[in-house]
Structure formats: structure tokens, C-alpha cells
Amino acid sequence: MSMDTLKVKIIKKAWEDADFKARLLADPRSALKQDFGIEVPEGIELSVLAETPAHYALVIPPQPEELDQLTATGAELKAAWS
């Protein structure tokens, strides 16, 4: 499963399940492990934000060159989300 497909599944579950959304916002690592079986490796910082009609978030992804130079930790995260 691609990371984009997984993100869509997580967002859909958060829309449909208020308890999951609250857990995801409070403790993303635990929520992802409990509901999706995904273990986010230590050393990876994970932030979850909820947008509202009056509050938007703009995420700037890493540059392609940075993705080509994944550390072992980054490679572990990529494997965990695939």
C-alpha cells in the first residue's frame, strides 16, 4: 500500500470515528499502532493537525534530494508505511 493510500485511509477513519480522531491527535503513534498495526520508529517525529474551516495547515515536504538520502531511520519509516 502506498503512503498516499494509507493517508487517505487514516483521514477517512478520523472523519468517521471521533474516538480514533481524538486518539490520533493526542497520541498518533499509539493510535496508528492500535488501529492500523503501524509502528512508527523511534527517532521519527510525527505531528497530526486537524484543520477547521478557520484554520488551515500548509505542509512543505522534503526536497527530492533529501528523500534520495534517507537515513536508516527514514528507510524504516518508509518500509513501515508501505
Descriptive notes:
This protein is mainly alpha-helical and 82 residues long. The protein is 57% helix and 0% strand. The protein is built from five helices and no strands. The longest helix has 14 residues, at 3-16. The radius of gyration is 14 Å and the shape is globular. The protein starts with a helix and ends with a helix. The mean pLDDT is 86.
Percent range of helical residues: 55-70%
Classify the beta-strand content into a percent band.
Answer: under 5%
The largest pleated sheet is described as: none
| Count of distinct strands | 0
Give me the Rg, rounded: 14 Å
Distance between the termini: 5 Å
Shape call: globular
Q: Summarize the helix and strand pattern as letters.
A: HHHHH
**What ranges have pLDDT less than 50 throughout 5 or more consecutive residues?**
none
Put simply, the count of helices is 5
| Secondary-structure content class | mainly alpha
The chain-level mean pLDDT equals 86
Features:
5 helices, single chain, mainly alpha
